[in-house]
Amino acid sequence: MATLNSIKNMYGICSHAIRQTTGLRAAKLIQQRAFRVNGALRQQPFDSSEEKPQFPGASAEFIDHLEFIQPNVISGIPVYRVMDRAGKIINPSEDPQLSKEQVLNFYQKMTLLNTMDRILYESQRQGRISFYMTNYGEEGTHIGSAAALDPRDLVFGQYREAGVLMYRGFPLDLFMAQCYANVDDLGKGRQMPVHYGSKDLNFVTISSPLATQIPQAAGAAYAAKRENTNRAVICYFGEGAASEGDAHAGFNFSATLECPLIFFCRNNGYAISTPTNEQYRGDGIAARGPGYGMMSIRVDGNDVFAVYNATKEARRRAVAENQPFLIEAMTYRIGHHSTSDDSSAYRSVDEVNYWDKQDHPISRLRHYMTARSWWSEEDERSWRKQSRKMVMEAFEKAEKRHKPHPDLMFSDVYEEMTPNLVKQKEAMWRHVQQYKEHYPLDAYAK
Amino acid sequence: MFSTSLLRVGSKLIGLLLTRKGHFNTLGLRNDFGFPPGPTTKMNLFQSVTSALDNTLASDPTAVIFGEDVAFGGVFRCTVGLRDKYGKDRVFNTPLCEQGIVGFGIGAAVAGATAIAEIQFADYIYPAFDQIVNEAAKYRYRSGNLFDCGNLTIRAPWGCVGHGSLYHSQSPEAFFAHCPGIKVVIPRGPVQCKGLLLSCIADQNPCIFFEPKILYRAAVEQVPTEAYTIPLSQAEVIQEGSDVTLVAWGTQIHVLREVANMAQEKLGVSCELIDLQTILPWDTETVCKSVAKTGRLLISHEAPITGGFAAEISSTVQEQCFLNLEAPIARVCGYDTPFPHIFEPFYIPDKWKCFDAIKKLISY
């Protein structure tokens, strides 16, 4: 628990600065907390003899002249990074100094994801699966954060976090099974592609409505706190989803209820076609954290080590101190929003190419590896061939499998099958038997 | 988690007492079931809620209760004493945000806790509609049963209260009846309230439990102090009859009870009164069996008539009992207006409107 301390909050320090210069200084964010008694937040004791304001709602000094706080979006919260764009370590003390084996694993997971994305995107174009979403450019956010967690930590995602699942060991067969909605799909064929889930890997099944997972993650973290088994929860979402009311709810609940939770925002510049300057006017998502009393940081999402370091420390402290942490990972969505989108309608090819060629998480890590002679051209060629082969094999296998039995349309609505649904299922089969030539029964399990 | 289910040993009840003049008289209501032998205490409806929550917190270490103002005991005193008894980590206030309350509850349930969320008035449940309909109801189905929030129960005060007006009187059950994957339950008195609430908490599906606020203090019965459950999705035939089937839930049961007496005394008409109890999934068999016998059906609820739950019952009954019907099915409900303030006596489906509808049913 935090103890009584006298660290002045950022606004306290800067209220003087504001009088001299406009704008908040984007210095290191320090927060003040009202003192805690047995973990419950108490306001300062009421004392009417004091000159300080006694309002229960805020702990602050008086000010005798009118001055509005100017939000600073020009020099916003700084972006933490470990490697430069060429993969060179900037401050050696920040290098997590992971082993060659770990770093190679990072690289292989990121590239395997990339390969799977290419093949599945193509397969949608060819009409083999109905829909797909790629992760191009954001692989660093997935792998860096996943590697910093404990495998027991519960993951709530949005839809562009397949790399987290891949890092945890979700097999290619099961990715494919979900996209093909075939008989091996753990989700029993009920959802659109990329709505993955895995109980064994503690990855809560994805749902399409945005930001709904955010307050849920707070509730799960609260339950984990009560269980007292050193378990954290991480919640991923994009900068667009952060505009939803559920995001505000989740941030506020997690802070007031003291939940061991990491909020991980992938700020990739676009929500479908909506650029960030139409999504928010403040300093991104990280700047909202202090408004909730939450520890916050902004990181270079294309720097897998920065993502790793920030997530690791956030996880350690979230569990130790029972408070939420907000990580805003700046990155860029290189691909289209989904197979239903053509992003050339709203952004330039030049812009996309810059990120693809000059600031890509995979290339930056590769430069780090090649600088240490951990990865050669031959390694690259052979891994590309091998990873492609793995993906193609899983793909071809998934294509051939049957779809799940249509009875599965009626189960799991409730834990138990209700009489109503039993009747509807029987009615459906009677109808299908009578009109069987109009229904694609051969594709489905018998 | 809970002790035995019900035995048919006969009623042990004092009767529901009116503490102030209302639009119904609740004396002499018979409970057509028995409950386990053991100590009972006189409890009103809000105390029966407290008792159910107390039993739950005592027997289930994962159970937590949260919502606006629950810590000090709640605006309707349903959670009085529980925080002191079980701790501030188990009975706690949340920020003022219904979508957060339900979302948080879903997450806690997914992580294995028994989550009991309070929405301060059913009228304010709508910000949580997305979380309820798109998330809670679909959690198990969409994940292929890998994940579920069956441990979630949402409680909310419901129905008219004499002066509640637009935003303290609503009965939103029809909005949720259209949502496969959740259960919607409404008790008529303290004994049912405790048993049905405990069933909702035990049930492995997300449940919404609406508590008739006008009955919080007005309805008083002898209620067992130990835990017991009343089955969900089972309607109860409170009174048998031969001429007309009356179906309602919550407060309106007491109105129809009086109407049944009036029909007997003034018209010589014998009414069969059914408390639906669970709106979703509802007990079609009990209702259809009754209508097959009587040939006449009257359904009554405070919520507006268009798209109200009486429409679903009416549609199903005409499908299954068409040839048994002697008269069109009657629905006596609120008008298609927001719930008014000063006009409440004109708005509600009172005993005279229901009595008049029975006269029309009989003389069709």
TrEMBL record, chain A:
Entry protein name: 2-oxoisovalerate dehydrogenase subunit alpha
InterPro entries linked: Alpha-ketoacid_DH_E1_comp (IPR050771), DH_E1 (IPR001017), THDP-binding (IPR029061)
Source organism superkingdom: Eukaryota
Names of the cofactor(s): thiamine diphosphate
UniProt catalytic activity: N(6)-[(R)-lipoyl]-L-lysyl-[protein] + 3-methyl-2-oxobutanoate + H(+) = N(6)-[(R)-S(8)-2-methylpropanoyldihydrolipoyl]-L-lysyl-[protein] + CO2
GO molecular function, one term: metal ion binding
Location within or outside the cell: Mitochondrion matrix
Example of a GO cellular component annotation carried by this entry: mitochondrial matrix
Keyword Lipoprotein: no
UniProtKB/TrEMBL annotation, chain B:
GO MF annotations, alphabetized: branched-chain 2-oxo acid dehydrogenase activity
BP GO terms, sorted: branched-chain amino acid catabolic process; response to nutrient
Ranges where the Transketolase-like pyrimidine-binding domain occurs: 43-218
Alphabetized InterPro entries for the sequence: THDP-binding (IPR029061), Transketo_C/PFOR_II (IPR009014), Transketolase-like_Pyr-bd (IPR005475), Transketolase_C (IPR033248)
Domain of life: Eukaryota
Co-factor(s): thiamine diphosphate
Compartment(s) where it occurs, according to its Swiss-Prot or TrEMBL record: Mitochondrion matrix
Catalysed reactions, semicolon-separated: N(6)-[(R)-lipoyl]-L-lysyl-[protein] + 3-methyl-2-oxobutanoate + H(+) = N(6)-[(R)-S(8)-2-methylpropanoyldihydrolipoyl]-L-lysyl-[protein] + CO2
GO cellular component, one term: mitochondrial matrix
Keywords: Mitochondrion, Oxidoreductase, Transit peptide
Main localization (coarse): mitochondrion
Enzyme kind, highest EC tier: oxidoreductase
The protein's Enzyme Commission number: 1.2.4.4
Its job: Together with BCKDHA forms the heterotetrameric E1 subunit of the mitochondrial branched-chain alpha-ketoacid dehydrogenase (BCKD) complex. The BCKD complex catalyzes the multi-step oxidative decarboxylation of alpha-ketoacids derived from the branched-chain amino-acids valine, leucine and isoleucine producing CO2 and acyl-CoA which is subsequently utilized to produce energy. The E1 subunit catalyzes the first step with the decarboxylation of the alpha-ketoacid forming an enzyme-product intermediate.
Subunit (UniProt): Heterotetramer of 2 alpha/BCKDHA and 2 beta chains/BCKDHB that forms the branched-chain alpha-keto acid decarboxylase (E1) component of the BCKD complex. The branched-chain alpha-ketoacid dehydrogenase is a large complex composed of three major building blocks E1, E2 and E3. It is organized around E2, a 24-meric cubic core composed of DBT, to which are associated 6 to 12 copies of E1, and approximately 6 copies of the dehydrogenase E3, a DLD dimer.
UniProt protein name: 2-oxoisovalerate dehydrogenase subunit beta, mitochondrial
Species per Swiss-Prot/TrEMBL record: Oncorhynchus mykiss (Rainbow trout)
